[in-house]
Amino acid sequence: MFFKPLGRQAAKPAQAPLGAPAAAPPVEQATINVRFFTDYPVCNYKCPYCVAGHGPPEGRGPSPWDEDRYLQIIDNICKLPFPINIRIGVGGEFFISKVLVEGARRLGASENVRVLNLITNLSFHPKQYARILAGIPKEKVALVASYHPTEIKNEDAWIAAAQELGTYYDLTTMSVAYPPSLHKLPEVKAKFEAAGVDHFVQPFIGEYEGKTYPQEYTEEERAIIRQVIYSRHDWEFLLNLKRPGMCNAGFKYLFVDPEGKVFQCGGAQHLKPLGDLTQSTEITFHSGPRPCPVSVCQCDTENINTKVFEDHYAYLDKNQHRFAYRFAEEAKEAPWMDEWTVAY
Ligand code: SF4
Ligand code: SF4
């Protein structure tokens, strides 16, 4: 499964003089969200819309994936002296690699790791996941399973597997609004709901039949997506490509690239790194939210760092894609406060 890209030895504040002792994280930065994008390049599927390049006949480009370096970075992440909620990103299927799983095991055993978010295409049996993840405290694990209809032979069996896996772990599922199959999404989402399995939909990013998405969805397609999309936030950032504004990236969130370089986020890799986890655990945090340095943020793990998200939504639990509009109750009395009406 692949999502587009969407991180202290102790950290020091951005303004700290050179050579000054490392500072403890500010109180308000209690848990830092971290995305470690490994770019692990192997997948057992070939989804036609795969952003990692497994679907297109020309295949994917070279990957910086390196097993020893991955584990070295993981060991330094385990030494960071503040609590983290980490998501390991891949350019393929996580559960194929024993080394990726070994890294997850080390993170799961580490005291600073509060939550471990993993992604999978759910191509294995639920009991295999339980076997693979045995030993990692269940309460730390959150999973996103991506539903890929072109690769799955039996839709009902896949939903049943998600239902079973959801009894072991905090699980949510997702699918992509790929133009040729998006008309089926309301039916698909209803099936997931009937099975008691969370499901969210992401707009397609890429080219299909000469059109660029998500920009060129038709009004009819947009209306279908509107029925099934998870939130107004997803609608504005993932479909309408809203300009992000102020963001907590680098303050409450860190992105680690496959080579261990730490950036405020995946969209800011053109800026100076905040650290290098192959060299040390020292990270220079921003002292507060900053304006986003790019014009769009289509990574769902990253655009949830924005101030506008923080102001309007709250997490329901440890899973990074389970959140709710904060003012739903108030909106019952004041319709202008409704999630879909409020200025966003
Ligand atoms: S599951 Fe599909 S979308 Fe995900 S990495 Fe594999 S081919 Fe790409
Ligand atoms: S909104 Fe901008 S600063 Fe924030 S995570 Fe996205 S790209 Fe980075």
Automatic annotation (TrEMBL):
Annotated source species: Phenylobacterium zucineum (strain HLK1)
Official protein name in the record: Radical SAM protein
InterPro entries listed in its UniProt record: Aldolase_TIM, Radical_SAM_PqqE_MftC-like, rSAM_sf
